[in-house]
Target: Bifunctional protein FolD
Amino acid sequence: MNSDVKLADVIDGKAFAAGLRGRIATLAARFEAEAGRKAGLAVVLVGEDPASQVYVRSKGKSTIEAGMASFEYKLPVDTDEATLLALVEQLNADPAVDGILVQLPLPAHLDEQKVIATISPDKDVDGFHVTNAGRLAVGQPGYVPCTPLGCLMLLKDKLGSLSGLEAVVIGRSNIVGKPMAQLLLAESCTITVAHSRTRNLPEVVRRADIVVAAVGRPEMVKADWIKPGATVIDVGINRVPGAVEGKTRLVGDVAYEDVRHVAGAITPVPGGVGPMTIAVLLRNALVAAYRHAGLELAPDAI
Ligand SMILES: NC(=O)C1=CN([C@@H]2O[C@H](COP(=O)(O)OP(=O)(O)OC[C@H]3O[C@@H](n4cnc5c(N)ncnc54)[C@H](OP(=O)(O)O)[C@@H]3O)[C@@H](O)[C@H]2O)C=CC1
Ligand SMILES: Nc1nc(=O)c2c([nH]1)NC[C@@H]1CN(c3ccc(C(=O)N[C@@H](CCC(=O)O)C(=O)O)cc3)C=[N+]21
Model:
């Protein structure tokens, strides 16, 4: 490793997210004063996956701390499709609910696409509905998936203009990779979307000024894949065995300890993209509330 050169700047997503939640809380209080009700976010969890339970609890806590109303629905793992769809329809019709999030993945017997398609696009604060994916693709206002929007906020905060930069997104999921590529394209980056069939991935990644890793493979992205000085955004959340037997630890998709000797800036895991996802979810729910109430919110307010 080039241990004589400067280490990468650490992009502190946790701190940035805390600032964002502070601005959201101010605007949530203004919303309550003007609309006469709190902005509301409903979160639906089917089953008892421990990781999902942690996220849902954390979302509920952050929602209340921001001065918004949190509605949590926990359904048993064997819930049938009709019951889940009926709940979504009920939330679509509920004027106290501005945003709806159905925690993914769903148990295998439930059709995720069908559930997402049932959420009203104007309450789809995850930005997963095909209407919002289409709006993003053609540059119309809508809801943008929280994780990629959080990544973009960190990138713009660090780099300012992204115009003309080479960006390589590793991963092409509808939730992270594809919307990330759309956002970077809208910022006038030259984008490459890599995936499991990409030939010579290290060489492709080496041309990037910006690398976004959203793969789900622990520490896959190595130091010699990174152009010196590049900005590296690590979306991966992977639980691996820890130093103490029976304990696990969280690692990203990037070999952080090595890559920070080469990159110019890098997000850590934990404390990078993850906290941004939740803060942006609150942002999207608050934007939804302002829109539903017909109140003005400046486009760059949050
Ligand atoms: N921090 C956060 O808030 C969030 C973190 N995550 C994390 O981000 C990661 C990605 O999530 P998600 O997009 O939902 O995952 P998916 O499993 O849906 O997508 C993974 C993508 O990685 C690609 N891929 C898999 N193996 C390789 C490989 N060897 N080389 C290159 N590409 C590969 C796949 O390619 P192909 O399409 O060809 O199969 C696919 O496009 C996960 O670790 C997840 O936990 C996700 C959401 C939020
Ligand atoms: N409908 C839906 N929308 C989602 O946005 C959604 C989802 N389903 N299913 C699961 C993924 C994953 N996700 C994360 C949120 C926060 C952290 C997060 O806060 N991570 C902390 C660490 C948390 C820990 O210690 O486990 C961090 O990176 O610092 C991570 C991942 C949202 N997702």
